[in-house]
Amino acid sequence: MTIGNQRSVITKATSEEDVHLTTLDPSGGLITTINTYTVTPDRAEEVLGYLERSAMETVRHVPGFLSFNFHLSLDRTQIMNYGQWESREAVMAARENPKIVALMSETAKVAGRSKSMPYELRKIVPAARKLTPGASVRNFRNHE
Q: What digits encode the pLDDT tens for the residues 109-139?
């Protein structure tokens, strides 16, 4: 992930293709979509697996799509998808794409309804200090 005013996009080459990772850059012109699904804790992995498969099999092939980032709430009752697209036009075209329209209908049946909202990143406020060596989300989880 890139943070700040860097214009570069992080990619890593794979044997199959180049992979785009999420970029956070207020001047980059990218569009973010955020979807939140409410699930029961016992269905969280099932729904998350479905969303991941849908992204891999269908969405990642749509023109203008850059990435999806799936988050699971610590209580396992919310799944949030932070997506990135090249432009507003790409988001609008995807919403009219017959494959995406069918997928959205199927997703509502499996994961429940979610309203996808487009956003533009306006500002990043970094921490005043660097992360302490060894600090991570994993350390946070160990102290719950």
A: 999 989 889 999 999 888 888 777 766 645 4
Provide the CATH number for the domain around residue 14.
Answer: 3.30.70.100
What is the domain extent for residue 46?
A: 2-124
3-state SS assignment for residue 67: strand
- Identify whether 142 is part of a domain: no
pTM above 0.85, yes or no: no
| Structural domain includes residue 132 | no
Q: Which residues pair with 84 in a beta bridge?
A: 32, 67
For the CA atoms of 94, 51, 36, 72, the dihedral, rounded to the nearest 10 degrees, stands at -140
DSSP 61: G
Task: Dig out the tokens for 35 from the structure.
Answer: 């979807």
